[in-house]
C-alpha cells in the first residue's frame, strides 16, 4: 500500500496529506473556547490514566458537574419542564466536551455557536409556549462523524474527504445536506453540538486516523475507547455528552459502549434511519450497518431510541420498517417475571480472558439471585459461531478493499496499522455476483438454523418459552491496549444474525489482584492467542467489563426491558 | 445456447431431456382421476376460447358449481362453521382443477389423495371439537411450484430438476422438506392439493416450459395466463382453486392476477415468509422476490394474507419482520372517507394501448364518482420510471445468466424463446461486488427520491395528506398473445421501490368494437412498439383489463382496504 507523501487539493490549495491532516487537527482545536480548556501542561496518560470523576471536576463548576453527571433521561425530565434551561445544559456539556477532546482526542467537528443559538431558541420556545419542542427538548446529543450536518465537514477519518462530500470535491451536497437522523434529532428538540471520531474505514475495534490520532479511553487513557464509534464512547464516557448515536456493522456501537462503562443498543436493520449518512463499502447489502444510541443508563438509550421511532422515520428513510414503539414488548418482560438466559461462555473460537469471565459470572450470579434461570448456550454445528465468523469475514472482503483503497488514494495517506484485521494490505480480487449470492444464501441458512435452535429451547426452559436473551461477552479481553484488538467476532455474530443487543456494564473492573493471564493453555487459533495477549492486568487496571444481552430480530423494546432487569439485578 | 439433445439421468436411468419431460408430462396427467376428466376430444382454443362459466359447468354437478364458484372468504365462513365439509369442498376443487389442467396445462404436481385424507381429518376434528382447526379450515389452497411439499417434486419448470432437490440429485431434502408457507397453510387448516406451473427461470410474464408447454388463459385460451405465477392465475381464474400463493419479483403475482380477472397482492419484503422455497438467482439481494396471494375477491386475498401473518411467520423465517396484522390501517382508510389517488397514465416509456387506457379511465371515473380525488402522477426526473426500469434490468443481469444456464445445463434443454426478454442468449460476464454495491446505492437513492416526491404531494391534495395510492396499469397491453410480452416494467417499478400493491379488475374487457390499435403514432422506443404490437382486439376479445393500486412499503392492510373501496366504486 502506498505510504509515500502525495499532494492533495484542499480548498483549492495543493498540500501533502500530512499538512492537510495537521491543518484540520489544529482547526478542530481552534474551535474550542479557551476558557473551557484545561491549563497546559496536561498530565500524561501514564501519570493520570483515569480522567473521569474527581480529575474532571477540578476544572468544572459545581453546577456544571451536577448537569454533566446527570443521565440523558433525567436531564430531559428537567429541560422538558423548564427546570433547567437548554442554554445552561448545552454550555456545561460544551465545556466538558472541550476537556474530553484535549485529553482523549475524540472530536472531529464542533458546532458550538449554532448549538447555543439552538438552545436559546428552545428556551424562548418554552418560555412562550410553556411546553417542550419535542421529546429531547434541550438535550445535547453527539453524533458519530458519519452523520452529515449543515456547515460541517464529514471526513470519517479520511484526509482525502476533507473539504468534499464523501470524497467528491464538486458535490453540491457538501456542507448543505443533513442525514435523516440529524433532522429527527432537531425536530425532537435535541441540541447538536459536535461530531465524534471514527477509525479510517470504520472497520476497527479501536478509533484511529491520521487527523486526530489514536483516541483514548477516559476511564483509563492507556487503553482504547473502542471502535468504530469510539469518539462517541470516549466523549459520553467522559460525560462530555449525555448520549449520542454511533453505528454498528460488526460491534461498533457495542465495543465503545462496553469499553467506556456505558449502555448501548444495536437495533436490527430497518428500525432506525441510516438514510443520508456516509459509510464504508456503501451498498454492500449482505450485512447492513445500523445506527444505535450510546448513553449512561438503560432509560437514556431507550429515550434516544424512542425519540427516533416516535419521529416515524419510515416516512423519511425508505429502508425503515413502519414499526411504532411497542411498549407492550417491555410490559410482557415485566409481567413474565421470570426470564431465562442462555449464557455463552465460549464461542468455540476464543475463550474470554479472566476479567471478562469474572464479569460474565457476576451477571449470571446476579440474575440467578434475582430469580431468573440461566442455561448454557451452545449452538449446534449448523449454525456454530465459526460459520458465522466466516460469513462476516467473507462479507468484509467482498470488494477486495476497492472502496477503502479509493478513499486512501484521494490523499495518499496510509492506513493505520490497527486496521489490518479487516483491511487487506494490497487490493484483492472482487467477488462476483454468483459468489455474493451464494454467500447470501449461506447466511440466510445459518440465520434459519440459529432461529430454529433458539425456538427449540422452549422444550427445556422452565417457563416453556424459548430463552429470552443470550448473555455474552462483547469482547474476550478488557478494553484494548493500542493495536491489540484482533477479534471483533464476539459482537459480530449478532450482526450476521441481525439480532437486537444491549450492552450493560457488569460492575466488574479489571483488578490485577484477582485477574491473572491464563497460563499453560493451548491456543486453538492465532486469534485466540492474540486475544489473550491483549490482556495485561497492570495496564488495563480499572477498565470496565460489560456484557451483551442479545435478543432476536427487531426486539428492541424487549431487550431494553431485559437490560433494565439485568441492570437492576446487578445493582441490587 | 445449447439446444442439442443431451442425456440426463432421471431416477437412475439415462434419458434425453425430451423423454424426461414427456414422462413427467404424462405422469402429471396420470394422477388426474379419470372420472374428473372432460371427455375427449377437447374443443380447440380457437373453437372455445372461454372455458369458464357455462362451458365448465357442463362437466360439473350443480353442487360442485355452487362450491367452486364461491370465493375463498365465503367458503371459509361455511367450512369453519361446519356448514360445508372439507371433503366435499376439496373434491369439488380437485374435479375442477383436473379440468383446468386438461384445458390449460396449469399443473406441475398434484397431491389429491393426501388432500382428501387431510380434509377427512379436518372434518373429524370439527366433529369432535365443534370448532375449526384454523382460519383456513377446509379451504383448498394451491401453491406455485417454488414451494416444497413433502412427497412432491419441485421442478420450477426445469427438466434438469426432476427427481432432485433444486438440481441436486443427492440432497436428503428431496421430497422431505417443506417451505414455511406450506407449514403455515397446514397449521391454519388449509388443504394443499396441487402445485402450479411456472415459466423456466421465473423471469417471464408468460408461463411456458418444456414439461407442460405454454399455459393458457381460461377466459380466452388464445392468450397467456400471465407469469410467472401463471399456473396459479389460470387455475384460480378457472375456479379450479379458490386461491393460492404466487411470487413476485417483477410482477409475477400481479400479471397473472390481472390477466385472469383476479385479485392479487404484492406485499413488501419481509411480510410473508419466503423461507425454504426454490428460486431463481437465489441470494440476489438487490430486489427480493416476495410471496403473495391470488384469489377471486379482495376479502379472499385479505384472508390468505392475514392467515399467514396471524401464524407469526417471524418465528420461522429470519427475514420476516415482526409486524402483526394491523386492522387499524384499514380502519383509517374507512374513517378517512375521502381518498386521493395519483393516476399514472404514461410512465414515459410505454403509453398503454386503447383497452388498457379505457380500463384505467373506468377506474378513475368510478372513484371520482364515489367522491375521491384523482391527480396526475408524474414523478420527477430524480426518480423517473426510466431510472427504475434501468435498475431492475441491471439487477436481473447481475450474474450474467450463470444461475439459469446452470439449470438448463443439467438436462441440456433449451430455454423457451418467450424468455428472451430477461435471459441472455449466451452467458455474460458477472458483475463485481463494487458494481453491485453501486447499483444498491443508486436504487436506495431513487427509493428516497420517490419517497420524498410522494411526501411532497401532501402540499397539493385536498386532504392535506400525501396521496393514498397510485392507480396504474399492470401491463400496457391486454393479456398477452403467445411470445408477445416484451415489457414487464409496468409492474416492476413497484418491486424496485418495494411497495405494496393490489390488483383489482377494472370491469373492462377487450371489445373489438371499441378498442382499436393506435395508428400514426411515433414509438419512443422499441419496447413501446412491441408492446403495441402485443394488442390485437380480435384475438384478445373478452380478455380482462385490471389496474394496480400501489401503496408505500409495508402498507398491506391499508392497500387491501383501498382495493375494497375501489372495487365497491367499480361495482356501484
TrEMBL record, chains A, B:
Broad enzyme group: hydrolase
Catalyzed reactions: a monocarboxylic acid amide + H2O = a monocarboxylate + NH4(+)
Recorded superkingdom: Eukaryota
UniProt-listed Gene3D superfamilies: Amidase signature (AS) domain (3.90.1300.10)
EC identifiers of the protein: 3.5.1.4
Ranges of residues in domain Amidase: 88-560
Keywords: Hydrolase
Residues annotated as signal peptide: none
UniProt xrefs under InterPro entries: Amidase_CS, Amidase_dom, AS_sf
Family the entry assigns: Belongs to the amidase family.
Protein name (Swiss-Prot/TrEMBL): amidase
Species of origin: Phyllosticta capitalensis
Amino acid at each position: 500500500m502506498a505510504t509515500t507523501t502525495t499532494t492533495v487539493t484542499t480548498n483549492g490549495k495543493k498540500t501533502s496529506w500530512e499538512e492537510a491532516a495537521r491543518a484540520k487537527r489544529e482547526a478542530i482545536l481552534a474551535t474550542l473556547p479557551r476558557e473551557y480548556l484545561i491549563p497546559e501542561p496536561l498530565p500524561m496518560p501514564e501519570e493520570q490514566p483515569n480522567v473521569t470523576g474527581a480529575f474532571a471536576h477540578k476544572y468544572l463548576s459545581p453546577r456544571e458537574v451536577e448537569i454533566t453527571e446527570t443521565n440523558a433521561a433525567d436531564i430531559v425530565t428537567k429541560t422538558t419542564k423548564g427546570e433547567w434551561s437548554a442554554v445552561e445544559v448545552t454550555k456545561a456539556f460544551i465545556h466538558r466536551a472541550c476537556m474530553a477532546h484535549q485529553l482523549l482526542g475524540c472530536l472531529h467537528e464542533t458546532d458550538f455557536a449554532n448549538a447555543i443559538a439552538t438552545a436559546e431558541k428552545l428556551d424562548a420556545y418554552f418560555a412562550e409556549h410553556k411546553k417542550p419542542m419535542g421529546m429531547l427538548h434541550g438535550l445535547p446529543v453527539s453524533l458519530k462523524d458519519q452523520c452529515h450536518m449543515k456547515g460541517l465537514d464529514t471526513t470519517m477519518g479520511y484526509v482525502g474527504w476533507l473539504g468534499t462530500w464523501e470524497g467528491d470535491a464538486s458535490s453540491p451536497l457538501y456542507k448543505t445536506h443533513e442525514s435523516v437522523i440529524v433532522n429527527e434529532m432537531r425536530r425532537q428538540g435535541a441540541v447538536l453540538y459536535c461530531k465524534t471520531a471514527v477509525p479510517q474505514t470504520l472497520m476497527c475495534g479501536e478509533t484511529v486516523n491520521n487527523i486526530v490520532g489514536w483516541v483514548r479511553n477516559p476511564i483509563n487513557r492507556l487503553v482504547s475507547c473502542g471502535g468504530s464509534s469510539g469518539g462517541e464512547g470516549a466523549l459520553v464516557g467522559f460525560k462530555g455528552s449525555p448520549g449520542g448515536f454511533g453505528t454498528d456493522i460488526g460491534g461498533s456501537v457495542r465495543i465503545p459502549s462496553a469499553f467506556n462503562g456505558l449502555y448501548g443498543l444495536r437495533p436490527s436493520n430497518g428500525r432506525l434511519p441510516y438514510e443520508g449518512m456516509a459509510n464504508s463499502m456503501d451498498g454492500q447489502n449482505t450485512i447492513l450497518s445500523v445506527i444505535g444510541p450510546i448513553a449512561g443508563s438503560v432509560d437514556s438509550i431507550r429515550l434516544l431510541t424512542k425519540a427516533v421511532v416516535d419521529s416515524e422515520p419510515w416516512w423519511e428513510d425508505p429502508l425503515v420498517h413502519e414499526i411504532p414503539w411497542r411498549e407492550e414488548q417491555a410490559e410482557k418482560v415485566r409481567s413474565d417475571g421470570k426470564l431465562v438466559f442462555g449464557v455463552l461462555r465460549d464461542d468455540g473460537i476464543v475463550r474470554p480472558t479472566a476479567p471478562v469471565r469474572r464479569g460474565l459470572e457476576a451477571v449470571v450470579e446476579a440474575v440467578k439471585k434475582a430469580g431468573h434461570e440461566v442455561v448454557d448456550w451452545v449452538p449446534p454445528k449448523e449454525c456454530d459461531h465459526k460459520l458465522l465468523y466466516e460469513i462476516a469475514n467473507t462479507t468484509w472482503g467482498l470488494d477486495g478493499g476497492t472502496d477503502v483503497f479509493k478513499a486512501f488514494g484521494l490523499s495518499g495517506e496510509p492506513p493505520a496499522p490497527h486496521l489490518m484485521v479487516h483491511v487487506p494490505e494490497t487490493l484483492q480480487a472482487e467477488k462476483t455476483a454468483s459468489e455474493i449470492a451464494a454467500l447470501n444464501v449461506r447466511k440466510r441458512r445459518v440465520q434459519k438454523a440459529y432461529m430454529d435452535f433458539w425456538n427449540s429451547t422452549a422444550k427445556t426452559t422452565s417457563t416453556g418459552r424459548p430463552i429470552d436473551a443470550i448473555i455474552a461477552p462483547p469482547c474476550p479481553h478488557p478494553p484494548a491496549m493500542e493495536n491489540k484488538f484482533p477479534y471483533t467476532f464476539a459482537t459480530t455474530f449478532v450482526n450476521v444474525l441481525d439480532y437486537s443487543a444491549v450492552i450493560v456494564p457488569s460492575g466488574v473492573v479489571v483488578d490485577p489482584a484477582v485477574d491473572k493471564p491464563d497460563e499453560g493453555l493451548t491456543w486453538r487459533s492465532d486469534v485466540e492467542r492474540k486475544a489473550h495477549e491483549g490482556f495485561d492486568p497492570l495496564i488495563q487496571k480499572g477498565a470496565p467489563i460489560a456484557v451483551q444481552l442479545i435478543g432476536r430480530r427487531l426486539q428492541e423494546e424487549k431487550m431494553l426491558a431485559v437490560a433494565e432487569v439485568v441492570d437492576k439485578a446487578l445493582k441490587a
